[in-house]
Amino acid sequence: MMLGAVLAPSACATDAPIAGPVPEVGFQHLAPVRLNVSIVEVQSSYQSPMKAPNAEHRFATPPAQAMMGWAKSRLRAVGGSGNGAVATFIVEDAKVIETKLKKTEGFKGFFTYEPTERYDATAVARLLIENSETGSHGEIEVNAARSIEISENATLSEREQAWFSLTETLMADFNAQMEKQIGAHLSQWLDPPVPK
């Protein structure tokens, strides 16, 4: 899904950084997902290359950080130490790719503000639950994607706000998919269990 292009109110706006604290994508307002496991482990196998065309390292809240924050906020182990089951959340892909967009040439292009960059964000993670004592096993994978275009006349603070909004909407999709997949495929580990 594409968000609208970010437009600055005037061409003479300055590239001032965001004032005050940097906003964070949070999930504390959502009820925890109570899992009948002894522990929830949160990991990431994704390593950002930290260079173009990747752009996630420039975000105040990169998708990998947001996904790990989601797991730590929402996944709650309530099975006790003798339960035997372990839930493992693994971030597999959290890239944001920046693509330069072609601008209209000639006289029209000179007087027209157009999107000059597109950012394609991806959030892929697995949730695995295993019980070494009983041999029971369950696994889901969620893949969310969002894109945004940013206008050439956007200020730095508007660009940073657009990146934050991109991560926020990406994580809203990710959260909805996770809730659906957990209910559909890992319901036996929910506390209380979902009735069939």
Put the structure in a nutshell.
The protein has 196 residues and is of the alpha/beta class. It is 24% helix and 32% strand.
Can you put this structure into words, describing what you see?
This protein has 196 residues and is an alpha/beta fold. The protein has one domain: 2-Layer Sandwich (Double Stranded RNA Binding Domain). It is built from three helices and eight strands. It has helices at residues 63-74, 106-110, 156-185, and strands at 2-6, 33-35, 39-44, 75-77, 85-93, 96-100, 115-131, 137-151. The two termini are 33 Å apart.
CATH architecture classification: 2-Layer Sandwich
CATH topology term:
Double Stranded RNA Binding Domain
Tell me the Rg in angstroms.
Answer: 20 Å
For the biggest sheet, the summary is: 6 strands, mixed
Q: What does the overall shape look like?
A: elongated
Low-confidence stretches: 1-22
Structural class: alpha/beta
Annotation, overall tally of beta strands: 8
What is the N-to-C order of secondary-structure elements (H for helix, E for strand)? EEEHEEEHEEH
